[in-house]
Give the backbone structure.
Amino acid sequence: MKNFIYEALATRVIFGAGEIRKVQSELKNISVKRALVISTPGQEELAIKISSLLGDLCTGIHAKAVQHVPMETVEKSVKLVSELNIDSLVPVGGGSSIGLAKAIALYTSLPIVAIPTTYAGSEMTPIWGITENGIKKTGKDVVVKPKSVIYDPELSVNLPVRVSVTSGLNAMAHCVEGLYAENTNPIISLLAEEGIRALHSSLPSILVDKNDVVARSKALYGCWLAGTVLGSVGMALHHKLCHVLGGSYNLPHADTHSVILPYALWYNAAYAPDAVQAIARSLGTEKDAVAEALFDLNTSLGGPTSLAKIGMKETDLDQAAELATKNAYYNPRSIDQQSIRQLLEYAFKGKRPE
Ligand code: NAD
């Protein structure tokens, strides 16, 4: 067994259908009295519901979260927090609401009780991101990691099927790369393998019936594990490619993850035998067919399978390969521009990896 370091980043997790009713007691647990409920404009109705569950522990609703956490929104929000004498943040929604709460916490150190309703997994990580002048800065600080997270699968039934699929595959990508991370460890490997298993068995049922609360519970459970993996160990080639494609060509975040995952695994498989074995076990497939299995899973779920279909231009592939090779993250297989160009070409065309 390889030497390792394992550091548990404490967050209290309350999990289960209907558990949202415990939000008030979660705030009482951390002895706060003046919460700000944060959501995107589209989820204001849910924010109002949370506010009524909180009763007089809620001081305000701030339905101003938008994608990519613009600095302007952060500055206005920090001002509001100070004016209202807020002592805690309750983001409800996806990575955008939780991202805004984390950015406020970065400047104010206020505690967060998060209520995720998507599969992004930000609630389990100490990673923050703020966009200023078109550039997204990210960093890690334990002050932004929620003290408590309430996972209530009933709140995710309205998540559209397509978003559920792509953001579920995005979560699966955290698990896959966690298994071959440079600093992985036996605990994270267990979580990652179980995360893939839970998502693999639940996403097809969500496709059949998006209101299936049992499948929603299992998917959310997988996403909790995936978020923990993402927050604990480093990510590799897959995440580097997705950052380049999203950041430089504006491709949609979760869709890009769905397309790239089989190809990144195809590229790395021969260099990460333990990870491949764990992935094969969790997908119930042969170990020399894991990349194909992920491609087939994505296809069967109706997810996007080629970069061409999600807006990439063929003329940008050379530059993308160059950018992805610069300041590369750790990866089990060495990275060179020519091989990455080939990977991107397969992904562009949606060629089944073999
Ligand atoms: P999001 O929060 O922007 O949500 C997408 C849309 O879905 C929003 O309009 C939202 O109002 C709506 N929505 C949310 N929950 C819903 C529900 N249950 N039913 C119907 N609609 C719902 O996007 P996301 O995919 O959750 O998060 C993606 C963002 O999170 C990206 O910007 C990504 O960079 C970030 N992220 C950060 C981390 C981290 O550790 N910091 C981790 C993962 C993702």
